[in-house]
Amino acid sequence: MMELDIIKDDEMDLLLEDVSTIYGYDFTQYSKASLKRRLNRICLIDKLASFAELRYQVVNDPSYLQRFVEEITVNVTEMFRDPYFYKKLREDILPKLGTYPFIRIWVAGCSTGEEAYSIAVLLQEINLYHKSLIYATDINPTVIEKASKGIFPLSKMKQYSENYIHAGGTQDFSSYYVAMYDIAKFHESLSKRILFSTHNLVSDSSFNEFQLILCRNVLIYFDKDLQNKVFRLFDNSLQNLCYLALGDKETLRFSSLESRYRQVKDQKIWQKLN
Amino acid sequence: MATDILLIGGSAGSITVLLQVLPAIDTDISFPIVIVLHRKSYPKSELDHLLEISTALPVQEVDDKMELENGKIYLVPADYHLLFEDERSIALDVSEKVNYSRPSIDVTFLSAVSIFGDRTVALLLSGGNKDGVEGLVSIVEHHGRVLIQDPVTAEVDYMPQQAMEALPMATILRPEHMADAINQLKHYK
């Protein structure tokens, strides 16, 4: 796709203020570089020739907001992304959590649900799913709706199956879904203990206490102040000695929480100390 | 024009060129170097170590929101786009592939030119798709400086060939002349 430069920095600030004031979605602490690309992208896709047109559409058409939120947030995700990470969950982290009477897991920024389903597969295979509950949340109601259906493009299954095997999976991955035309519909036994819900990391508060929180490749879209705010939210939502997992290039280092967490060796997983 | 950032983009056939060029780059260069290569995300590559032992300059794969320092080499991680947040810090992004690629060379080049303008310098190496060409064109439009590997010397010549056709006036370099051209950049004011 052509990269366009329709939106200027000061215009972006203006638009984000509008969206925050009118609709209560606060993107002002999102990373500017990424957001600007998304705004230019939505102008291109929706054939809006100028910043003024985009702003008019957003301000005057409340029904456009959902689409706006969906397009400016990044919803690219995959099953078993970073297979080593899932292997570590399977072989070490989840079995440790298995000693708890009940395992609550929060997938924050779950997008279309691929990570939540990946976790469900792991839990099923190590016989912990019956006493687990996965809370999968995202800012964006459209992706939550998609996620709850458990339907993914069949064209992705080859790669997901490879990821699954690299992550230590031993079953036939295709036994987890039914292929129909160009889609793969995952079995309902996988989603029955996943609760899908909207949650805005910027403005919503803690809603439970968890043994594992996954928030991978979400914080990269936030500036450092907002990252710290979200870390505090996670800290308030995590039981002592339990785990926070971040994306491969994200870190708890340099945050105010660092001293109270211990990083799991060679992993972007941190354990909350007592 | 002074140089604030040097970008190097490459795909198939570019690693051997880097291993030839990086050792000959002076350690007192007055700008950071950001390298965008197409590569597989799995298994984890040892590319940063390979580049690290080839040069006296510090090499590291970037983390989110990392601050760039002059005289250091930064490698864009597999499966992330790299954007510039401002003149000193970068942001990573896992959005859709561009030119079938993530990282995309175009994404980083275009982001750089929006921050550094005419103080952007980019070098495009061997490769089999046209990722990077649009970015080079934009850098030239903003009066930055563009260097292209001589397609005759490229293991896969499609990428530099496309760049040369889009920018007939650009500087074409054989690998053995690249380090000199890069070392010269610190003398421009």
From TrEMBL, chain A:
Enumerate the GO terms in the molecular function aspect: S-adenosylmethionine-dependent methyltransferase activity
The protein here is known as: MCP methyltransferase, CheR-type
Query: What PROSITE patterns does the database record attribute to this sequence?
Result: CHER (PS50123)
Kindly list the biological process annotations in GO that this record carries: methylation
Q: Could you list the residue ranges that cross the membrane? A: none
Instruction: Note the SMART domains from the entry.
Output: MeTrc
Q: Would I find Transmembrane among this entry's keywords?
A: no
**Could you name the domain of life of the organism this protein comes from?**
Bacteria
